[in-house]
UniProtKB/TrEMBL annotation:
Family stated for the protein in its record: Belongs to the 1-acyl-sn-glycerol-3-phosphate acyltransferase family.
Coiled coil location: none
InterPro entries membership: AGP_acyltrans (IPR004552), Plipid/glycerol_acylTrfase (IPR002123)
Record GO biological process: CDP-diacylglycerol biosynthetic process; phosphatidic acid biosynthetic process
EC class name: transferase
Gene Ontology MF term list: 1-acylglycerol-3-phosphate O-acyltransferase activity
Catalytic activity: a 1-acyl-sn-glycero-3-phosphate + an acyl-CoA = a 1,2-diacyl-sn-glycero-3-phosphate + CoA
Cross-referenced NCBIfam families: AGP_acyltrn
Domain Phospholipid/glycerol acyltransferase: 70-184
The name this protein goes by in its record: 1-acyl-sn-glycerol-3-phosphate acyltransferase
Length: 244
């Protein structure tokens, strides 16, 4: 049954990415802010969660301040983190995403149309330009989502954080909101990555961590504070301390 569901999921993922990607591009022509396109992306995230049989247990929504721009920093265990954040974080935001994704057919154009920001991780100068662009967006009122680990964890255990997203936060002088995603690595286990395992993923939104007045000299302290805030709501198996 899991293999049948998995085949159906992957076929639908291919189809709905094209169809909804085109819809997001069309919406961007009518709404230059990208807000309508983001709503299409949110529907895409929720649709794929539903088809995969993945439920999301969300905690900490009362900590959100949608009226204030911020940087949301989430750990990254699997592909499903993207669906979880898109579908279940009920605010407008844009992604800071690796440049390679913007080269994908339809999806890349949809991401660009929605206002997502590409970052070239192999070119330090271009990466710095992307961070400056993202900081300008945040200062202008747009929230950004980052995966500070840079890439997915192969076993669900929290990895070390990259520095770029924290330079972005310091440049923007806006708070970082930690997001802990627990259990998504079990949906697509490392040993059999194409088979989908339905289940429950827990997403916990932590307290905002201020960056007003912070300088780049305090970057490492900020990284450690955010990492610990994310760890707090991960299981011991994932490198955290939670016992739920």
């Amino acid at each position: 049954m899991k293999r049948i569901r998995s085949i159906f999921f992957h076929v639908l993922l291919f189809v709905d990415t094209i169809v909804l990607g085109l819809a997001a591009i069309a919406c961007s022509k009518l709404d230059r802010t990208g807000n309508w396109s983001h709503l299409v992306a949110r529907f895409w995230g929720n649709l794929n969660l539903r088809v995969a049989g993945v439920e999301v247990d969300v905690h900490g929504l009362e900590r959100l301040r949608p009226e204030r721009p911020c940087i949301y920093a989430a750990n990254h265990q699997s592909l499903f983190d993207i669906f979880v954040v898109l579908g279940k974080l009920p605010v407008q935001f844009r992604w800071l995403a690796k440049e390679e994704l913007f080269r994908l057919f339809v999806m890349g154009r949809a991401m660009k149309a929605t206002g997502y920001i590409p970052i070239n991780r192999s070119d330090h100068r271009k990466a710095f330009e992307s961070i400056n662009q993202a900081a300008d967006k945040v200062r202008g009122g747009v929230s950004i989502v980052i995966f500070p680990e840079g890439t997915r964890s192969e076993n669900g255990v929290l990895k070390d954080f990259k520095k770029g997203g924290f330079i972005l936060a310091i440049k923007s002088q806006q708070p970082i909101v930690p997001i802990s995603i627990s259990g998504s690595h079990r949906v697509v286990p490392r040993k059999d990555k194409w088979v989908i395992h339905p289940g429950v993923v827990r997403m916990t939104i932590g307290d905002p961590i201020p960056t007003a007045g912070a300088t780049t000299k305090e970057r490492d302290l900020l990284i450690e504070e955010v990492r610990e805030a994310i760890r707090r709501y991960l299981t011991t198996e994932e490198g955290g301390t939670a016992t739920f």
